Amino acid sequence: MARLEFWYDLASNYSYLSAMRIDQLAATAKVDIEWRPFLLGPVFKEQGWNTSPFNIYPAKGAYMKRDMQRIAVQRGLRFQLPEPFPARSLLATRLALLEEADDWTRNFCKSVFIAEFALGEDISNPDILSNILVKLGVETAEALATAQSPALKKRLREHTAEAIKKGVFGAPSFITEDGELFWGDDRLEQALAWQSNQSTYSLKEKE
Amino acid sequence: MARLEFWYDLASNYSYLSAMRIDQLAATAKVDIEWRPFLLGPVFKEQGWNTSPFNIYPAKGAYMKRDMQRIAVQRGLRFQLPEPFPARSLLATRLALLEEADDWTRNFCKSVFIAEFALGEDISNPDILSNILVKLGVETAEALATAQSPALKKRLREHTAEAIKKGVFGAPSFITEDGELFWGDDRLEQALAWQSNQSTYSLKEKE
After folding, report:
1. How confident is the model at residue B205 (pLDDT cuts 50, 70, 90)?
2. ipTM of the complex, rounded to two decimals
3. Nearest residue, CB atoms, B73 vs list A57, A180, A203
């Protein structure tokens, strides 16, 4: 089956929107989703930012909140921004990579996104993450210890480096098997259409 | 009839996308469009930028070109970026305000967008603008002189100040009668739905 890479940061609010709907849309489009968590921090640093552009540019930040509210209502989702925003997503992201199976990453990350953006919880807090792990049937203490292992730290660094190498500059991003990059929750349908060849586009060659 | 403000810069490629489709979508939604040209330059300056973010952030700029190509093909539009990008849109924008009627602004601006983004012409060149004026049946020399008048310069400054006051931070932007701001060609349908009350949103009160 065709595969589409879904690149996201657990602290990214627009990634939350995509995470909540990508499985259903992908099933309809007959596309498998590779869940690829990474850290936006190093990506933003390459652009000279030390925090989210929503914090650096207040008009953009105010707009984003209203945009999120409108879309959340339209899709029947709860939405609030956690404090602080963006949340420190490092520990949660390492946990997301505990197992290399997409199923693990998907289930864990959806729970993290809901805790953070539907309930406003602090996902840098190990207690919040432990609650999620327990519900997923995971040995909590062991998982938290493994998340601090050099192997997991390395895996996350590799993920983030791969994202940058592939041209990712924001989240969510979607990359098709033939290397097309789509950025933003509002490009998800287009990315799936491209990958599943149910596309209406005739543009398949590169510039 | 319900009215929606369409704020755009003549040098903005995503504004081109909206200009080419907004009339048809608005007719279907039974919404009148107010064409509101303004200058992004002063808006960007407020954010500390001295050119388009597509030039400041190369990964974003490269992505924008590919995104535009894909969407243009999908919609049957020609697309190329003019050199230099962004074009100096000052003279063209003043001409767009020659008459206060939406029809004048709409017809002139569509021609400018096509010259610029379909044909790659330099819209800071008075000869290019003269060609457009002639085709619209306008006394060219007089129009170009009027465009340099204090009255037109003032009108454009007021437009841009109004945009900033209303929270506009990029283009295209759409503002409904009840003050909702939508940013980006990909929010055009949502803005029209909000204004025409054919909306599926129940969120009508402010935060």
Report:
1. very low
2. 0.89
3. A203
| From A13-17, A56-60, A115-119, the region with the lowest mean pLDDT | A56-60
Calculate mean pLDDT across residues B146-155: 95
Q: List residues of A with catalytic annotation.
A: 12
Q: CA-CA distance, B187 to B191, in Å (whole number)?
A: 6
CB A134 within 8 Å of CB A140: yes
- Domains present along chain B, CATH in parentheses: 2-196 (3.40.30.10)
Task: Indicate the SS3 state at residue B197.
Answer: coil
**Kind and range of the H or E element at A5?**
strand A2-8
Q: Which tokens hold the place of A144?
A: 């938290």
Beta bridge partners of A6: A35, A174
Contact between B174 and B5 under an 8 Å Cβ cutoff? The reply is yes
B111 has catalytic annotation: no
- Is B73 in contact with A201 (Cβ distance < 8 A)? yes
Q: Which residue of B has its CA nearest to A202?
A: B73
Contact B36, B5 (CB under 8 A): yes
For chain A, say whether B63 makes contact (Cβ under 8 Å): yes
Pair A134, A115: CB distance under 8 Å: no
Average pLDDT over residues B178-187: 96
Beta strands B2-8 and B31-37, pairing class: parallel
The set of residues, in sequence order, having a beta carbon less than 8 Å from that of A81 and lying 6+ positions away, is A13, A65, A68, A117, A120
**Cβ pair A36, A159 in contact under 8 A:** yes
Interface residue A78 vs chain B (CB under 8 A): no
Nearest CB partner across the interface for A69, out of B59, B190, B207? B207
Distances (CA, A) of A169 to A43, A49, A160, B164: 6, 12, 11, 27
Summarised one tens digit per residue, pLDDT across range A59-82 is 899 999 999 999 999 999 999 999
Distance CA A201, CA A126 (A): 46
Which residue of A65, A165, A169 is the best one to mutate when testing the B interface, meaning the one whose CB has the most B CBs within 10 A? A169
Q: B62, A190: Cβ pair inside 8 Å?
A: no
